[in-house]
Amino acid sequence: MTAVLCRHFGLKHIETAEDIASDTFLKASEHWAINGVPENPVAWLYTVAKNKARDYFKNLSVFETKIKTGLITDISGENDFELDTRIIPDSQLAMIFAVCNPANSDEAQVCLALQVLCGFSVEEIANAFLARSETIKKRLHRARTNLRNDNFQITTLGEAEITSRLDTVLRTLYLLFNEGYFSGTNNRLIRKDLCSEAVRLTFLLTENPLTNQGRTNALLALMCFQSSRLEARTNDKGEAVLFDEQDRSLWDHTLIEKGNFYLVNACNGNEVSKYHLEAAIAYWHTTPTDQDKWLHILQLYNQLILIEYSPVTALNRLFAFAKVYGNAKAIEEAEKLDLIDSSYYHGLLGYLYSGTDIAKAIRHYGQAVKLTRSGSEKKTLKKEIERLKSR
Amino acid sequence: MKEFALIFRLKDLADFKPTPEQMQERMNWLAGIASQNKLVDKGNTLLPFAGSAKTVRPDNMVTDGAYTEIKEFISGYIVVRTETIDEAVEIAKANPVFKIGGSIEVREILKRD
After folding, report:
1. The CATH number of A289-391 is which of 1.25.40.340, 1.25.40.10, 1.20.140.10, 1.10.20.140?
2. How do residues A257-283 score in pLDDT, each as one tens digit?
3. Out of B31, B35, B39, whose CB is closest to A337?
4. Coil, helix or strand for A340?
């Protein structure tokens, strides 16, 4: 809703739009509780929001004579909250492109998009970026100020802007999906919502010739492969189920086939993006055990880490390395990594030591329990410690 | 942090084209450096063959092939980022090039501004 409002009144009024949106939902919860849910709830919400927005701008124009004439004609004109056939017909998507404005740094663009459009809290953004909340708060504040000063409208985006902003938009959608897929929250519904919204928006990008690039298809393939395991990776209690223990009959084969389709599309050109590599890795995970599977996966991780360093990639690569060359060699490699503050690092070392040195394994798992903020991960780790102790 | 170029040298042109196993080893080594976030530039391979390599000397003297007066030729380079040169040397030691009699020269980079 914030996206639709902003599209009409300009991003300058983003805070107002957010206020109006939350006011509208408040009014809805009061009104609907008494009178029941209206026949067309979406239309109801938008009518209320529209009226609230008109009131707001009427008041504003009394006080603020400097208000743009264009804006006034825009709100007083025959403007309905309808989606139309502009270059990017989806409001949510149009807004992401608008927020991904080069007036801000890439990181700030992604942060802002996640907050405004995807409703992420500062904490969640900080988690996604492996950064401190304070840093993210400052970054968001600066980004909003920049956008307001830049004073642009969502509708003015042309072909060149869309093409040049595509990479940041893809990154936003990638993070949105990951937050749904990997986040610490146990609420499976919320997580599925985030994932399916990311899939929906990425799918829209593949429908548009301007944004239907190899990397867009690769990202969509990655999301399909990962989504195919959504049902299998948590049990009824909301606990994580490790890959090897997943019930493969719960994997969604329609999604795997869609993943294959988009991965083939992605490989039509010579482009190799990080999404291509990650999608290829996810593809290998969906295949039944193949003799060289882990060697293929290791090779892909080798390429991925050369494109972009991230602690998570480094650790995932090490896991694949252990599968190919054995735990002892992987431990040697692990000791070169400076990631002692990471719960995943200790979790991996715990796993690598569990066959040879139980005391060390327990120590590392214990360290991981201390470092992780995810409740379900804590549970899984503690279970593993218990299992080792009883051996 | 300092930056160092690792310059690879080989003795025998026949060793230039790696077997798939050698290629895998090299990639593992390179990705291992990237995993420590110490890789600045994955560098390039320098083709040593006639047609891809020439050496230019004074008086317009041009010879075919890589410069081999020192009996070794340069096959490639990468750039790493470490605190000390010793750390860069440790990284170099793990490279599989030594198995085929190659060598690695470690040189600190002075940036041109």
Report:
1. 1.25.40.10
2. 999 999 999 998 888 999 999 999 999
3. B35
4. coil
